[in-house]
Each structure stands twice: as structure tokens, then as C-alpha cells.
């Protein structure tokens, strides 16, 4: 009786005690390293990287072991400056990224100067938790950032409560979804955070079992977003999903994920210019070199050596302006409770933003809008004077043919006859 009850448990324990070396990591082979050059060029020539974008770049470059002192100094300066300028304004996830970037691949004795940043992160994480307590479970920011917080606190000896992690990171939590759609980026970041937490748990108690269960369930959700071509979620979540799958390979079967296929598709997308934005390049690069954010506090894993990226920096391939003298026409709709529609004519090669600008010229009342610059480019904050509101979880969603687009207004290239829409939505 006792035995039959215990045997499966022992099996379960053995299963979860299998060392992390089991990780199946597929990475771009040495012969194919040159295919990463477009990413590196984009990152290295982004001279005007600011704040969070700079932090993402520095983190990625350190992880893949690129030694370019000048660049590192430049990005380092950007990160430090932005911390000095607006430390108290930084969101929790911004601060977490800054810490990850500054401390990545550094011996812990060099990092004494950053100690106060970690304690500030502890406070900001608590503020997120408090906000969830009084605002219907909504954090100040989002779960992508809360995951970055836990990951960073866990990696750099910050204090956080496992009980709170267990309470707030249940896979069913609504914050893993935007408008009913599972956010692969968010789930992947949570898997990285929970994996760090799992590794830090000393005894084999209930905590370990629960965290294991969360990881398993999130991994399942991530894998269920795998597309026929191997992308996971979309082009821009695939890098982070790969990182999550690298560190969680004992939670799924080999035949559930063909890493090589994912890699091949990403390489194809690189050659087609899909990662021509520094932050997009920075988010995909570590995974392609077999690295994850869990490696940042492991100096020997970061240190460059044979087999590491041998970089050849070229001048960036000029992106020939595709704007031509051919004109195309698209339908443009603003959807609130009412529908506002117009037909817009723009030069071939125009982006979503150009269409919105043209529409605004046609009818200022119906189509006026505002945007702010962010690490991913222009972000639409208001249309017709109606402003997004974090407390109500409202935002302006971008769609084409009724489907959400995977790029912002500054990057999404429009096609002749397309039905574009900005929709007042909730997440
Ligand atoms: C949370 C989130 C959102 C939230 C932001 C509000 C909130 N509550 O935080 C919501 C749901 C509103 C959102 C909306 C959109 N998002 Co979003 N979002 C994210 C996510 C998961 C985390 C961002 C974050 O907090 N990063 C950490 C902090 C520290 O960095 P940050 O730069 O300060 O973060 C801010 C910006 O990223 C900004 N933001 C969020 N999404 C987008 C998208 C664009 C195009 C821009 C310019 C800015 C922006 O909001 C963040 C919080 O202030 C990322 C995933 C990722 N891999 O980065 C996707 C991500 C950035 N979003 C993406 C997209 C496509 C969108 C939408 C265009 C989707 C759509 N079809 O409508 C819209 C933006 C439309 C607009 N108004 O311009 C893509 C961008 C890909 C690309 N190549 O441009 C990402 C990478 C997800 C993905 N894999 O598709 N998003
Ligand atoms: C965290 O603390 C442990 C033990 O207290 C120490 O061995 C480890 O080096 C520390 N890690 C960092 C990144 O400071
Ligand atoms: C290099 O990439 C190509 C195309 O993705 C692939 O077919 C080939 O096997 C790769 N080479 C190696 C050595 O992995
Ligand atoms: C650090 O990285 C090295 C090289 O990748 C690896 O062998 C080692 O197991 C890692 N150590 C930890 C604690 O993860
Ligand atoms: C890096 O590239 C240079 C020139 O392309 C070559 O001479 C050198 O041997 C390469 N180093 C490694 C470690 O592959
Ligand atoms: C849309 O209509 C609903 C129900 O009539 C109303 O409560 C809401 O305020 C309207 N929203 C906007 C943005 O006009
Ligand atoms: C602009 O749009 C508003 C709202 O649909 C409409 O009432 C107005 O007549 C339009 N103005 C012009 C000049 O078309
Ligand atoms: C665009 O709008 C026009 C009406 O002005 C409509 O006839 C056409 O079918 C729409 N285009 C598409 C692709 O739906």
C-alpha cells in the first residue's frame, strides 16, 4: 500500500532531478555564422540606441560573447546615463533589464556597485504585487516585466517570496493573455524566471512540485503556439520561446519540437530583413547562439573562446528605399463603437503610419492620432482623441484583414487593396 503510493513519487522526483545538462540546444553552426551578420550589423550600427533598447543590445552582445570594447562602452554609457536620469521613473521590467545588461557575464566581485539596483528592484516588484492586490489582479506593467523582475532577483541574489511567485504565476493567470490570446513572449519569460526559481529551491517539497507544474503547463501552452513553419507564436516571440524550450527540455518529448526547423525558418526570416530593428535582433540573437538569459550570471558560459561568434562587421547593407512612384490604395478603418472608414492612396512601400497620416489629412476629426517613440518604434497612444488607459487595460490594436499585425505602425508595410484597421480594444 505504502510502496505503491511512493513509487510513482520517487519516479517523479528522479524525473525532475535529471540534471540540466539534458538541455537540447540547437544553435547556428559555425559554417552558418555568417548568416547572423545582418543581425550583428543592425545591432552594432544602431548608434543611437537609448535606454531600454541599449540594455537589450548590451545583454545580447555580452551573452554571445562579442568583444567589441568600443561598442560595449558606448552601450554601457547609454544604459548608465538612462539609469541616472530617470531611475525612479523606470518601470520594474526596465530596471530588471538594466541590471541584467550591466551585470551580465561579470564576476560577482565586480558587481558590488550595482547592489543598490537590486534592492530597488525588490521594491518595484513589491509595488507590482501591491497593485495587483488592489486593482483586480492587474500589475502596474505586465507579466512580461514581472517575469523579468523575478528572473533578475533570482539570478542576482535579490529577495523575493516563493509563496508570492506561486500565488501570482499560476499558468491560468489572466495576465498571460492579451485579449484572450496567450502571449508567447510573456510565457517564455515566465518559464525562464520559474526555471531559475526552481534551481534555487534546495529541498524537494511542495514548492518544487508546484513550480515544476507551472513550468510544465506554460511549456505546453508555448508549444501549442508552434506554427507549421516552426515559428513559435510569431517571428518576434520565437527567440524567447526557444530560450524557454532550451531550459525546459525535460518537460516535453523530443518529437514535440523540431528545433532545427525553427532555426532554419528564423535564418530565412533574417535574410528577408525581418529583424531589421535593433531590439528585434537583440531578442533573437542569444537563442541562435544557444544562449539563454539564465546564462547571464555564469561567467564561464559567457566568456568568448573558440566556437564563439567570429564577427565581421561590414557597413550596413543600405536598405534601398522601396518607396516608388507606383501608387497603391488601401482601406482604412477606425473602429470604436462606431466605424469610421476611408480609402487612402499612398506610394508603394509605405508603412501603416503613412496611411494613418494620409487619412488624417482627409478628415482630421475622424482620423487624428498621437504616438510616442518606444524601443520598438512609434506606438499609437490615441486616435480621435481617445487615449489608451492602462488602468482600464485599453489600447489601440492594429489589424489587417481583421487579424492583428505583428509589427508596429512604423514597420508594417502595407499592400494594395488591404483592409487596415485600428481598433479600440481591451487586453
Ligand atoms: C506587454 C506588451 C504589449 C502591451 C503593452 C501595454 C502593457 N500593458 O504593458 C499591449 C497588449 C498593449 C501591446 C500592444 C501591441 N503590441 Co506588444 N508587446 C508586449 C510585450 C509582451 C512586453 C513589452 C514589455 O513590457 N517589454 C519590457 C519593457 C521593459 O520594455 P519596453 O520597451 O519599455 O516596453 C514597452 C514597449 O514594448 C511598448 N510596446 C508594447 N508592444 C509594443 C509594440 C510596438 C509596435 C511598439 C512600438 C511598442 C510596444 O509597451 C511596453 C510597456 O510600456 C512585448 C514582447 C517583447 N518581446 O518585447 C510585445 C511586443 C513588443 N508587441 C508587439 C506588437 C506587434 C504589438 C501591437 C502592434 C499588436 C497589434 N497588432 O496591435 C500592439 C501595439 C499597437 C500600437 N498601439 O501601436 C510585438 C512587436 C514586434 C515588432 N516587430 O514590432 C512584440 C515583440 C510581441 C510579438 N512577439 O509580437 N503589447
Ligand atoms: C549569490 O549568493 C551565493 C551564496 O550566498 C553566492 O555563492 C553567489 O555567488 C551569489 N551570486 C551572485 C550573482 O551574487
Ligand atoms: C546551414 O544552414 C542550412 C540552411 O538552413 C542548412 O541546410 C545546413 O544544414 C546548415 N549547415 C550546418 C553545418 O548546420
Ligand atoms: C556555466 O557554463 C558552463 C559552460 O557553458 C557550464 O559547463 C556550467 O555547467 C555552467 N554552470 C552553471 C552553474 O550553470
Ligand atoms: C575568425 O575570422 C578570421 C577572418 O575571417 C579568421 O582568420 C580566424 O581564424 C577566425 N577565428 C575563429 C576562431 O574562427
Ligand atoms: C461604447 O458603447 C458602450 C455601450 O453603449 C459604452 O458603455 C462605451 O462607453 C462606449 N465606448 C466608447 C469609447 O465610446
Ligand atoms: C469627418 O468625419 C466626421 C465623423 O465621421 C464627419 O462627421 C464629418 O462630416 C467628416 N468631415 C468631412 C469633411 O468629411
Ligand atoms: C475597400 O472598400 C471598398 C469600398 O470603398 C470595397 O468595395 C472594397 O471591397 C474594399 N476592399 C477590400 C479588399 O475589402
UniProtKB/TrEMBL annotation:
It comes from the Eukaryota. GO terms for cellular component: extracellular space. Disulfide bonds join 26-259, 105-302, 154-196. Pfam families: Cobalamin_bind, DUF4430. Its main location: secreted. GO terms for molecular function: cobalamin binding. Keywords: Cobalt, Cobalt transport, Disulfide bond, Ion transport, Secreted, Signal, Transport. Gene3D superfamilies: 1.50.10.20, 2.170.130.30. Residues 349-426 form the Transcobalamin-like C-terminal domain. It is found in: Secreted. Residues 1-23 form the signal peptide. Cyanocob(III)alamin binds at residues 141-145, 185, 234, 283, 379-380, 396-398, 427. InterPro entries: Cbl-bd_prot, Cobalamin_Transport, Transcobalamin-like_C. This is Transcobalamin 1. The lineage of its organism: Eukaryota, Metazoa, Chordata, Craniata, Vertebrata.
Amino acid at each position: 500500500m505504502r510502496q505503491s503510493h511512493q513509487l510513482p513519487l520517487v519516479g517523479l522526483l528522479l524525473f525532475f532531478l535529471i540534471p540540466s545538462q539534458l538541455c537540447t540546444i540547437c544553435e547556428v553552426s559555425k559554417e552558418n555564422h555568417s548568416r547572423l551578420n545582418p543581425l550583428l550589423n543592425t545591432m552594432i550600427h544602431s548608434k543611437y540606441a537609448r535606454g531600454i533598447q541599449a540594455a537589450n543590445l548590451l545583454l545580447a552582445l555580452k551573452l554571445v560573447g562579442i568583444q567589441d570594447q568600443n561598442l560595449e562602452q558606448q552601450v554601457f554609457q547609454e544604459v548608465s546615463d538612462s539609469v541616472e536620469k530617470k531611475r525612479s521613473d523606470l518601470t520594474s521590467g526596465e530596471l530588471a533589464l538594466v541590471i541584467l545588461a550591466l551585470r551580465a557575464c561579470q564576476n560577482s566581485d565586480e558587481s558590488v556597485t550595482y547592489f543598490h539596483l537590486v534592492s530597488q528592484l525588490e521594491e518595484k516588484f513589491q509595488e507590482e504585487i501591491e497593485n495587483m492586490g488592489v486593482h483586480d489582479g492587474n500589475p502596474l506593467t505586465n507579466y512580461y516585466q514581472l517575469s523579468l523582475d523575478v528572473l533578475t532577483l533570482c539570478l542576482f541574489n535579490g529577495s523575493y517570496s516563493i509563496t508570492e511567485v506561486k500565488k501570482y504565476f499560476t499558468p491560468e493567470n489572466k495576465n498571460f493573455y492579451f485579449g484572450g490570446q496567450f502571449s508567447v513572449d510573456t510565457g517564455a519569460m515566465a518559464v525562464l524566471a520559474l526555471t531559475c526559481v526552481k534551481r534555487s529551491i534546495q529541498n524537494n517539497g511542495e514548492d518544487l512540485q508546484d513550480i515544476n507544474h507551472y513550468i510544465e503547463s506554460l511549456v505546453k501552452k508555448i508549444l501549442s503556439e508552434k506554427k507549421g513553419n516552426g515559428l513559435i507564436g510569431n517571428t518576434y516571440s520565437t527567440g524567447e520561446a526557444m530560450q524557454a524550450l532550451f531550459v525546459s527540455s525535460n518537460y516535453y518529448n523530443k518529437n514535440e519540437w523540431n528545433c532545427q526547423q525553427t532555426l532554419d525558418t528564423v535564418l530565412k526570416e533574417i535574410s528577408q530583413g525581418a529583424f531589421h530593428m535593433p531590439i528585434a535582433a537583440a531578442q533573437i540573437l542569444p537563442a541562435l547562439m544557444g544562449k539563454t538569459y539564465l546564462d547571464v550570471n555564469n561567467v564561464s558560459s559567457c566568456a568568448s573562446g573558440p566556437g564563439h561568434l567570429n564577427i565581421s562587421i561590414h557597413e550596413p547593407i543600405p536598405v534601398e528605399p522601396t518607396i516608388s512612384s507606383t501608387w497603391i490604395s488601401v482601406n482604412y478603418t477606425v473602429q470604436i463603437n462606431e466605424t469610421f472608414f476611408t480609402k487612402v492612396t499612398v506610394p508603394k512601400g509605405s508603412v501603416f503610419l503613412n496611411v494613418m497620416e494620409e487619412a488624417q489629412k482627409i478628415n482630421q476629426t475622424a482620423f487624428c492620432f498621437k504616438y510616442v517613440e518606444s524601443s520598438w518604434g512609434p506606438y499609437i497612444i490615441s486616435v480621435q482623441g481617445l487615449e489608451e488607459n492602462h488602468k482600464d487595460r485599453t489600447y489601440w490594436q492594429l489589424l489587417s484583414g481583421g487579424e492583428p499585425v505583428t509589427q508596429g505602425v512604423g514597420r508594417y508595410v502595407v499592400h494594395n487593396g488591404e483592409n487596415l484597421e485600428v481598433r479600440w480594444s481591451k487586453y
